[in-house]
Write a structure and sequence with these properties.
Layout (H helix, E strand, L loop, with lengths): L2 H26 L3 E7 L3 E7 L18 E7 L10 H9 L3 E5 L22 H14 L3 E11 L1 H10 L7 E5 L14 E6 L4 H15 L19 E6 L11 H14 L13 H17 L1 H4 L14 H18 L20 H21 L11 H21 L15 H20 L5 H22 L6 H26 L3 H19 L7
Parallel strand pairs: 3-4, 3-5, 5-6, 6-7, 7-8
Antiparallel strand pairs: 1-2, 2-4
Length: 525
């Protein structure tokens, strides 16, 4: 790219990114929503249909008669921010919505409990408190309350629905199993994506058949009598994945139709523009600026020439052996109880991934030190630290902002200490792979990509074999996207200012941030 052309492209990308920020912020103000803190310190956001109105304290005056409402829960390793797109659709259709963070997730400081450890505690207790609030809200009809959830939240919605006889409907989105209460869940809709794992789809279908009292149910057929609260319906959304179903117009439309049958109509709000398009466009502009960011620091970052990559396939083989050894070394760690050498990280699943990469990275670095082939990294060089801080600051603010319509990645105060702890765990792996796989020429391009792909494959294999939590499989697309983003930054650093320490620090900081912001914490804070 010619210098003048490059400057024009970066200026245009910056303007687009700023415009997307403004669009996302305006979109968040188009609906009436108030942040509240519920019993037990549960952080929640309450949406109400009708014209946008300001909050007074933690509530706003009702608009017209009380409307039916939906208590909407997120899945494992997410937060209420991930449900905002669906909430907007439901509010536009005339329903009130209450989003909240389960214990251990997002801004909720309470510790995460083991799923299913207590049918009347844990996640169902959180649901009970939020539903109690919704029933007492002056803008909501207490006789027309539904509970819904995605993935783990869908299972919790179904479990809670079997204990509360006063609900009008229960909806499981790519989740919903294990109703062990004394009541059948009323007007049950189970909706999932055709890209969901086959065992999950089978479990959901079995649950629907059990609630309906039949051996097997046909998709897109309503069983029972919705007008009497005994309806059951199963439906599969094509061309969607476990996560993308939350942003699917087709899925949202099917959910609204079920709510109209179960709760009746609400006060429809004039449809407002979705911020998902701005989020996508902002993501593209972010990547363009990320590509150019190393040009800002190259004048003062010390250069560490990258040596030629000899025997590239042997290097990949060394990484594969390290992955196998690292996986075996952590095979006895219980992902939920926290037993093992990384107990100091009270964060489910991310603890195991961080531990695996730490063991692999240390092993590779020790091997390099023994062979006297390890370069001088200069991790504590002030110029390197300053450049890494600039890169991380840009990623944190820009990517975190454009992702807000899809997921809130900004670290709550009680989670912030996880960032340096995870950074130190990830740093050996990123440093080792920069030393082992990064270099001049074409090999220095495809080797790091292959190394990250092999690492993701090893993590997936470990989850399928039970060596890592199964839920890691559902997070792999997001982890792959994260690895792709940090690889773009590291590859650009290697071409503008070759410095393994800078590339390792920048990748570690970004990975630690994302992993520390989404996975549930145990033990409270």
């Amino acid at each position: 790219m010619q210098p003048v052309t490059g400057r024009v492209v970066y200026v245009v990308a910056a303007i687009v990114l700023i415009a997307c920020f403004i669009t996302i912020q305006r979109s968040s103000r188009e609906l009436t929503h108030c942040a509240v803190s519920l019993e037990g310190g549960i952080p929640a956001v309450v949406y109400q249909p009708g014209p946008a109105r300001p909050c007074f304290g933690d509530a706003t005056a009702p608009y017209g008669d009380p409307v039916p409402a939906v208590v909407l829960a997120h899945g494992f390793g997410a937060s209420k921010g991930m449900m905002k797109a669906l909430a907007r659709t439901l509010v536009g259709a005339g329903y009130g919505v209450v989003l909240f963070d389960f214990r251990g997730h997002g801004q909720n400081r309470a510790g995460f409990d083991l799923p299913g450890s207590d049918p009347r505690g844990g996640l169902t207790e959180d649901f009970e408190r939020v539903v109690r609030y919704a029933r007492g809200h002056p803008g909501f009809d207490p006789e027309r309350i539904a509970v819904a959830g995605h993935s783990m939240g869908g299972g919790a919605a179904l479990a809670y629905g079997s204990w509360d006889p006063g609900l009008a409907a229960v909806i499981g989105i790519s989740g919903g199993w294990g109703s062990d209460g004394p009541y059948p869940p009323p007007n049950l809709l189970l909706i999932w994506a055709d890209g969901d794992p086959a065992p999950m789809r089978a479990a959901i279908r079995d649950t629907g058949a059990e609630v309906a009292g039949l051996a097997r149910l046909v998709l897109d057929r309503t069983y029972g009598e919705p007008e009497r609260g005994s309806g059951v319906r199963l439906t599969e959304v094509p061309d969607e994945s476990h996560v993308s179903i939350l942003y699917s117009d087709e899925a949202a439309e099917r959910i609204v139709r079920w709510l109209e049958q179960s709760l009746g109509p609400g006060i429809r709000t004039e449809a407002s523009g979705s911020a998902l398009g701005a989020s996508t466009l902002g993501g593209v502009a972010f990547m363009v600026l990320l590509w150019g960011l190393p040009l800002v620091t190259r004048r003062w970052v010390p250069v560490e020439p990258l040596p030629p990559l000899e025997a590239p396939f042997a290097r990949l083989g060394r990484l594969v052996v390290s992955l196998v050894v690292g996986m075996l070394a952590l095979s006895a760690v219980d992902a939920y109880s926290g037993v093992g050498p990384f107990t100091f990280l009270p964060i489910v699943a991310a603890r195991e991934i961080a531990g695996l990469l730490f063991v692999i990275g240390v092993g590779l670095l020790v091997w390099g030190a023994v062979r006297a082939s390890l370069p001088r990294f200069g991790l504590l060089d002030p110029r390197v630290l300053a450049a890494a801080a600039i890169f991380f600051g840009f990623v944190y603010l820009a990517l975190g902002s454009v992702m807000l319509p899809r997921l809130d990645l900004f670290l709550p105060a009680h989670r912030f200490w996880l960032w340096p702890a995870l950074l130190l765990c990830f740093l050996p792996w990123f440093a080792a792979t920069e030393w082992l796989l990064r270099g001049p020429g074409w090999a220095g391009v495809w080797l790091p990509i292959a190394g990250k792909a092999l690492t993701l494959a090893a993590i997936a294999g470990g989850a399928m074999l039970g060596l890592l939590p199964f839920v890691v499989l559902l997070a792999l697309p997001g982890l792959a996207l994260l690895f792709a983003i940090v690889e773009v930054l590291a590859a650009r650093i290697s071409r503008t200012t070759p410095n393994p320490a800078l590339a390792a620090l920048a990748q570690s900081a970004c990975t630690a941030w994302v992993m520390g912001s989404i996975w549930p914490m145990q033990g409270g804070a």
